[in-house]
C-alpha cells in the first residue's frame, strides 16, 4: 500500500472533478504537485462522467508559486508551463477557486484555468521580480490578455499583491465569492458555468484586453523608460520585453520568448542572491531562544529618551499599535521629544499619507512622563539615552526599582557592554539589547543583542517585538559593535587605508555605488554627520591601551572634523553641499588634506583600479564577517548577510557579503586576504573559519543549515 502523501487529490462530485492541492505550508508547486496536477487534468479529460474541473488549494493558500528551493537545481518534468498549457487545453471548463496567496506560478495556474473565483482573503500577484525572475509559466502572456499591458506590467514590475476586489475590477477574476468556503464557492461557480453552456474560455485566445494596440504600446514604452532609469535589477527589462511579445506575437511564439528570457534571469547571479535573501530573511527568525521559549506579552511599552533615536523608536512602537510612554528628564526635554514624534506624523500628513484624524488617533496612545513611576506597568522598556555607561547605569537602577516583575528592560546602546549593564541590577535575566538603526521608524534591521544571563523568553520577546514592528531581527552576541557596526568599522578602516595609500575618497564611493550600494562610505559619513564618529574616536582614544600594538591610524577624518566639516549638516564634509544641495561635489581642499596626511605618514601614493578597491573593501567585510560567525556573535553567515543588507545598504540582490563570497569562491577571497597581508599583516589576518572552510572545500552556505 503506497502510503506516500500525494499532494494532489482528485475526487468527482456530481460530474465535477475537484482537484485539491495539499502541499503544506503554502502549496508550492514542487515536482510532485506538478505531476499530480498534470495527471489530474489528464484523468478529468478522459473521464466521460466529468463535465467540468475545479482546482482548489488546501490549507492557508491557493498556491504560493513555484517551489523556490528548486531553482538552481536540475529541472524535473513536467515543467510548469506545460502543466499550465495542459490545464488550458482541457476541453471541459476549468475553474480555479482562490483563497489566500495565489502568487507567481500559483496565479499562472489560475490564469491557465478558464475561469477564476476568489474569496475575500485572496492575495493575487506575480512577485517573481523580487526573486530576480519573471513569470515563467505563461504569466507574461496570459496576464496582458486578461488585464491589458499597463496593469500586467504594474503587477509584474512591482510584485505587489492584489486583493480580490481589485482583481475583479482589473478583469483578473470573474467573481468575488460572498463566503470564505472556497470549495463551495468554486463548485457553485462551476455549476453556473455549466448552466450557461459550459464554454471553454481559453486565456490564450482572449484579445479584448489588448485590442487598443496604441494604448498598450504607450504603456510598454513608458515602462521600458522607467525600468531603464532604475539601474541594478536584471529581470524588469525582460518583463517588459515579454509583454511586448504578448502584444506582437501569437501566444505560442510569445511563450517561447518568455521561456528564453526566463532562462536568462534564472542564470543571473541576481536570482541566486535574491533567493538567498528570501530564505535568509526567514531563517534569521529561528534562534535557539525562539524555539525554546515563548515571548512575554507586549502591550504597554516605555521609551526613555526623546532624542532622535528615542523619538524614532516611539514612532515605530506607535505604528505597531502599541501604547507608549515616553520618559524624559524634564518637561522641556519631553516637549521636544513629543514634538519630534509629531513632526514625523505631520510629514505624513503633508504627503497625504495620513489624515489629521489619523494622527490624533495615533497620539492618543502616546503618554509623556518625567517620573519613572509612569513605567511601573510597562511590559517592556527600551532606553535610548546618551551613550555613556554611567548614564545607562543610572537609568537601569531606576528601572530596577520601578518596573513590575517580568518587565523586559532593553538598551538601545550601539556599542557599550550590555553584560556590564545587566550585572549592575537585581534582574539581569530581564535585560536585553535592542539595537535600532536610525531613523528607527524606517530602518528594518533590529539587532537583538543577547547578554550572558538573559532568560530565553526575554530573547523571544525581542523577536516578537520585531515582528510587531515589522522589522527584520538578527540575534547578536555581545561584543564591540555587535554584528553590523563591528563589520562596518573594519571595512571603513580598509577604505581609509586605501584613501591614505593613494585612492581618492570619491573613487572609493564610486566603487561602492558601482557594486550596488546606494551610496559609498564617505557619502554615508557626510549624511550621518562626521562628528558622531569623531566623538567616538576621541572617547576611545582616552581609554586606548597605550601598550597595545600600534595599529595604523588615519587622521584624515579628524582633520575634516577639526575644521567643522561634518557633512551635509554643515554644508561640507568629504563633499561640498553648496546652498544645501543634497548631492555633494568633490572638494579640492579635502584632496589637499589627504595629500598632506600621506606626506606626514611618509606614504608614496599608489593608484588603485576600481577592481582593486572593490576586492579590498569586500575582503575586509567578508573576513570580519567570518570572525563574527567564528566567535558566535552571529549564529550563521546568513545572519551577517541579513544584517548588512537591512542595516548597511549592501545590495539585497547580491544576497549579502557571505553569499557574495560563496559566489566569488572562498579560495579567491582567502588568496586576496593573504596577498594584502603582505602589505599589512596586522590588519589583514585571515579569519580561522575562512581558512578552515577553504581547507575543507566548503562554503559559508554549508554553515547556514548546520
Ligand atoms: N517555495 C518554497 N517555499 C516557500 C515558498 C515558495 N514559493 N513560499 C513560502 N515558502 C516557505 C517559506 O520559506 C517558509 O518556510 C514557509 O513557506 C512560510 O512562508 C514559475 C518562477 C506565500 C505570502 O515569490 O511571499 O512562481 O521558514 O514565512 O508570512 O513563474 O511565503 O516555514 O521553513 O513567508 O504567511 C513566486 C513567496 C515563486 C511567493 C506566505 N512566489 N512566498 O507568507 O509565510 S517563483 C513567491 C511568500 C515562481 C513561476 C515563478 C510568502 C507567502 P519555513 P512565510 P507567510
Q: How do the helices and strands line up, and which of them pair or pack?
A:
Elements: E1 8-13, E2 16-21, H1 31-46, E3 52-57, H2 80-89, E4 94-98, E5 101-103, H3 105-112, E6 115-118, E7 123-125, H4 139-158, E8 162-163, H5 164-170, E9 175-176, H6 182-195, H7 213-229, H8 235-248, H9 251-267, H10 269-283, H11 288-292, E10 300-304, H12 308-319, E11 323-327, H13 331-350, H14 356-363, E12 366-369, E13 380-383, H15 389-402, E14 408-411, H16 418-423, E15 431-436, E16 445-449, H17 456-468, E17 472-476, H18 484-501, H19 505-515, H20 521-528, H21 530-543, H22 556-562, E18 575-576, E19 585-586, H23 588-600, H24 610-630, H25 637-648, H26 657-664, H27 666-677, H28 688-696, H29 701-704
Parallel strand pairs: 2-3, 3-4, 4-6, 5-7, 6-9, 10-11, 10-13, 11-12, 13-14, 14-15, 16-17
Antiparallel strand pairs: 1-2, 7-8, 15-16, 18-19
Helix pairs in contact: 1-2, 2-3, 3-4, 4-7, 4-8, 7-8, 8-9, 10-25, 12-13, 18-24, 19-24, 24-27
Amino acid at each position: 500500500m503506497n502510503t506516500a502523501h500525494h499532494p494532489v487529490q482528485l475526487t468527482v462530485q456530481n460530474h465535477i472533478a475537484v482537484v485539491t492541492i495539499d502541499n503544506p505550508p503554502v502549496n508550492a508547486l514542487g515536482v510532485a504537485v506538478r505531476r499530480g496536477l498534470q495527471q489530474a487534468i489528464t484523468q478529468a479529460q478522459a473521464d466521460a462522467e466529468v463535465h467540468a474541473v475545479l482546482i482548489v488549494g488546501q490549507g492557508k493558500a491557493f498556491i504560493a508559486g513555484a517551489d523556490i528551493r528548486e531553482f538552481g537545481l536540475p529541472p524535473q518534468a513536467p515543467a510548469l508551463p506545460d502543466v499550465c498549457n495542459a490545464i488550458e487545453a482541457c476541453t471541459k471548463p476549468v475553474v480555479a477557486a482562490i483563497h489566500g496567496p495565489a502568487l507567481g506560478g500559483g496565479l499562472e495556474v489560475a490564469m491557465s484555468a478558464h475561469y477564476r473565483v476568489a474569496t475575500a482573503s485572496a492575495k493575487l500577484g506575480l512577485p517573481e521580480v523580487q526573486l530576480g525572475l519573471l513569470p515563467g509559466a505563461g504569466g507574461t502572456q496570459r496576464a496582458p490578455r486578461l488585464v491589458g499591458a499597463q496593469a500586467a506590467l504594474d503587477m509584474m514590475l512591482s510584485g505587489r499583491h492584489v486583493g480580490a476586489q481589485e482583481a475583479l475590477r482589473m478583469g483578473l477574476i470573474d467573481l468575488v465569492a460572498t463566503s470564505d468556503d472556497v470549495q463551495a464557492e468554486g463548485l457553485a461557480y462551476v455549476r453556473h458555468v455549466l448552466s450557461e453552456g459550459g464554454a471553454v474560455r481559453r486565456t490564450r485566445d482572449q484579445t479584448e484586453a489588448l485590442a487598443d494596440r496604441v494604448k498598450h504600446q504607450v504603456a510598454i514604452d513608458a515602462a521600458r523608460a522607467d525600468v531603464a532609469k532604475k539601474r541594478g535589477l536584471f529581470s524588469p527589462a525582460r518583463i517588459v520585453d515579454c509583454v511586448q511579445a504578448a502584444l506582437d506575437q501569437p501566444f505560442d511564439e510569445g511563450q517561447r520568448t518568455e521561456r528564453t528570457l526566463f532562462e536568462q534571469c534564472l542564470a543571473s547571479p541576481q536570482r541566486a542572491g535574491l533567493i538567498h535573501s528570501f530564505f535568509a530573511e526567514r531563517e534569521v527568525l529561528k534562534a535557539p531562544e525562539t524555539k525554546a521559549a515563548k515571548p512575554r506579552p507586549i502591550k504597554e511599552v516605555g521609551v526613555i529618551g526623546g532624542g532622535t533615536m528615542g523619538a524614532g523608536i516611539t514612532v515605530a512602537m506607535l505604528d505597531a499599535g502599541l501604547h507608549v510612554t515616553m520618559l524624559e528628564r524634564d518637561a522641556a526635554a519631553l516637549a521636544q521629544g513629543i514634538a519630534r514624534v509629531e513632526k514625523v506624523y505631520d510629514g505624513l500628513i503633508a504627503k497625504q499619507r495620513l489624515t489629521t484624524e489619523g494622527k490624533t488617533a495615533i497620539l492618543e496612545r502616546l503618554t509623556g512622563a518625567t517620573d519613572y513611576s509612569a513605567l511601573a506597568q510597562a511590559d517592556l522598556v527600551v532606553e535610548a539615552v546618551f551613550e555613556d555607561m554611567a548614564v545607562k547605569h543610572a537609568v537601569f537602577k531606576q528601572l530596577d526599582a520601578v518596573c513590575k516583575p517580568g518587565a523586559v528592560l532593553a538598551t538601545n546602546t550601539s556599542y557599550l557592554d550590555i553584560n556590564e549593564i545587566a550585572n549592575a541590577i537585581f534582574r539581569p535575566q530581564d535585560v536585553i539589547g535592542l539595537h535600532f538603526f536610525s531613523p528607527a521608524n524606517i530602518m528594518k534591521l533590529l539587532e537583538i543583542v543577547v547578554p550572558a544571563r538573559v532568560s530565553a523568553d526575554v530573547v523571544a520577546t525581542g523577536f516578537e517585538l520585531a515582528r510587531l514592528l515589522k522589522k527584520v531581527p538578527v540575534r547578536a552576541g555581545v561584543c564591540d559593535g555587535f554584528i553590523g557596526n563591528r563589520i562596518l568599522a573594519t571595512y571603513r578602516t580598509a577604505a581609509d587605508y586605501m584613501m591614505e595609500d593613494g585612492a581618492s575618497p570619491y573613487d572609493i564611493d564610486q566603487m561602492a555605488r558601482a557594486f550596488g550600494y546606494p551610496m559609498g562610505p564617505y557619502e554615508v559619513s557626510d549624511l550621518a554627520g562626521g562628528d558622531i564618529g569623531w566623538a567616538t574616536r576621541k572617547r576611545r582614544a582616552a581609554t586606548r591601551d597605550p601598550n597595545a600594538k600600534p595599529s595604523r591610524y588615519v587622521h584624515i577624518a579628524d582633520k575634516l572634523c577639526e575644521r567643522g566639516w561634518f557633512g551635509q549638516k554643515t554644508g561640507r564634509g568629504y563633499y561640498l553641499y553648496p546652498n544645501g544641495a543634497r548631492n555633494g561635489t568633490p572638494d579640492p581642499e579635502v584632496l589637499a588634506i589627504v595629500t598632506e596626511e600621506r606626506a606626514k605618514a611618509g606614504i608614496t601614493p599608489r593608484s588603485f583600479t576600481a577592481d582593486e578597491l572593490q576586492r579590498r573593501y569586500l575582503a575586509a567585510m567578508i573576513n570580519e564577517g567570518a570572525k563574527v560567525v567564528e566567535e558566535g556573535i552571529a549564529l550563521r553567515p546568513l545572519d551577517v548577510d541579513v544584517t548588512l543588507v537591512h542595516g548597511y545598504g549592501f545590495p539585497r540582490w547580491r544576497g549579502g557579503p557571505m553569499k557574495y563570497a560563496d559566489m566569488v569562491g572562498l579560495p579567491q577571497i582567502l588568496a586576496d586576504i593573504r596577498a594584502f597581508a603582505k602589505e599589512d599583516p596586522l590588519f589583514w589576518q585571515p579569519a580561522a573559519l575562512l581558512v578552515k572552510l577553504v581547507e575543507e572545500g566548503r562554503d559559508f552556505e554549508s554553515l547556514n543549515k548546520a
